[in-house]
Backbone:
């Protein structure tokens, strides 16, 4: 479509930085946004500037260092996004997200860190008959060995507990064709991704970095 125009978004934010103690600091971010002219497919399968979205939310960040060897960094955010024309929630957008990074420095050569990611509240579109999207909590672990300033090695374990993590796929009429084939006595493969997009399970990496 040669008549497509850029999408537009207007945002407003208010941020409060709080230095509570020498070892604990935090910030609060309150935000609102309104997006217009979002590019979407129309009923004729042509991209048009027909989408709108409005949302608001709050995010809390904090850093705490209780000892010289231990540091916690985390944030948690909540947002409510909807279509201002219909009042319907925007599908597939997380309502609540949280992240926690924990780092422990054993000594000058060794450091252990762990990252936790929490995603909840992703909804289907109103015309999507599939079951709700699962929430997930993913944990990664990193062990770093740095005996010299110019090189270090890392053992990285992603998704330590091998959680089944999926990114939601949009609804599609193709998903029902395999069921239609069963009614007609014809075996049809699954088309598209009716079970959403799977992400990586447990994975282990060993890396080395040399600076010169």
Residues:
């Amino acid at each position: 479509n040669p008549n497509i125009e850029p999408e537009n978004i207007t945002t407003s934010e208010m941020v409060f930085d709080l230095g509570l103690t020498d070892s604990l600091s935090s910030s609060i971010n309150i935000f609102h946004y309104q997006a217009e002219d979002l590019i979407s497919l129309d009923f004729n399968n042509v991209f048009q500037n027909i989408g709108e979205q409005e949302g608001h939310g709050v995010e809390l960040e904090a850093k705490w260092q209780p000892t010289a060897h231990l540091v916690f960094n985390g944030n948690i955010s909540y947002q409510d996004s909807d279509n201002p024309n219909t009042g319907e929630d925007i599908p597939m957008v997380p309502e609540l997200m949280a992240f926690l990074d924990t780092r422990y420095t054993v000594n000058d050569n060794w450091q252990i860190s762990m990252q936790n990611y929490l995603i909840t509240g992703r909804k289907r579109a109103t015309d999507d008959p599939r079951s709700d999207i699962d929430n997930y909590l993913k944990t990664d672990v990193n062990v770093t060995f740095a005996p010299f300033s110019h090189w270090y090695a890392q053992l990285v374990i992603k998704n330590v507990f091998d959680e089944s993590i999926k990114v939601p796929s949009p609804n599609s009429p193709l998903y029902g064709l395999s069921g239609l084939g069963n009614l007609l006595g014809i075996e049809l493969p699954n088309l598209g991704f009716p079970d959403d997009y799977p992400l990586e399970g447990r994975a282990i990496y060993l890396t080395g970095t040399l600076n010169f």
